[in-house]
Amino acid sequence: MDLSLKGKIAVVGGASQGIGYAIAHLLASEGASVAMVARKTEPLNEACQRITEETGAKTFAIAADIRKAGDCENITRSALEHFGQIDLLINNDGAPPLGEIQSFDDLAWHRAVEQNLMSVVRLTRGALPSMQKNGWGRIVNITALSAIQPIARFGLSVATWAGVIGYSKTLSLEIASQGITINTICPGRIATRRIGTVFGSGTPGQIDPEQLAQMTNQIPMGRIGEPNEIAGLVAFLCSPWAGYISGSVQHVDGGRHASLI
Ligand SMILES: NC(=O)c1ccc[n+]([C@@H]2O[C@H](COP(=O)([O-])OP(=O)(O)OC[C@H]3O[C@@H](n4cnc5c(N)ncnc54)[C@H](OP(=O)(O)O)[C@@H]3O)[C@@H](O)[C@H]2O)c1
Question: Which of 94, 128, 225, 236 is spaced 20 to 30 Å from 198 by Cα?
């Protein structure tokens, strides 16, 4: 299947490692040029270099913190200055802290809204005019299964990503006639460094066999997913084959989502 991504220009958030890196790598392998975003310059530059070496694609590093309005503006402005247009926007990064939902003060809530919701609003606002000019575009948000199947202690993400789903569904209606789609992916447990931090020992990437067994017991497929299994759906949603899919919420979770829809 030709995904027709050759020559497309992508902006991918959280692209120095994990799910974002897998997305950037796959889009680059399919012929897209990729502006890659993360805060830490050195791992980001290394990731860009690796992807260019392995795929031959053009990459461009943009060091930015998507929790800051000015950085979001800078991401889309720099990508436009460097590549001339934006065709694909992948909203992905880290996540707010865990804890009982009643324990968070206004500042923690404000930060979570800036990180999970306002970054999507701002980056989309920055990328849309280029897509509208060309009459074609794809926006994909990476959230989490917990956004549609909440789990205790994930409240800041659950509440703010629910906002992302509401924003995206509404926007999908308003841009439906312009050749631009927006969809949201809700990953279940995926093997990245983050999984060790959140569900394992607290050390990135480290998870002991007992913790792993507990986690996989809750997954019908009996295993944790791979970043490429998220990237594959992103690439499909970015392709013309997915031109009739917009405003959707897709769970990629080894069968874990426990509901009919
Ligand atoms: N892994 C899972 O099991 C799983 C499951 C469901 C949902 N998710 C969600 O999927 C997303 C990606 O997860 P992951 O596992 O790939 O995480 P990861 O391995 O920790 O990677 C996160 C990426 O985002 C960047 N980042 C973090 N905060 C940022 C910020 N404020 N501004 C700009 N870049 C930022 C990081 O680089 P810097 O630190 O240099 O900024 C890194 O490139 C997260 O939102 C996560 O909650 C993950």
Answer: 236
| Centre of ligand 1 from the C-alpha of residue 20, in Å | 7
Give the mutation target among 11, 12, 17, 74 for probing the ligand 1 site: most ligand atoms within 8 A of CB: 17
Domains and CATH numbers, the chain: 9-188+227-251 (3.40.50.720), 193-224 (no CATH)
Structure tokens at 103: 């324990």
Pairwise pLDDT comparison (196 vs 145), residue with the higher score: 145
Mutate to test the pocket of ligand 1, among 34, 39, 44, 156 (most ligand atoms within 8 A of CB): 39
Supply the pTM of this predicted model.
Answer: 0.98
At 135-147, the pLDDT tens digits run 999 999 999 999 9
Helix axes 119-134, 155-174, angle to 10 degrees: 20
For the CA of 47, the closest atom of ligand 1 is: 43
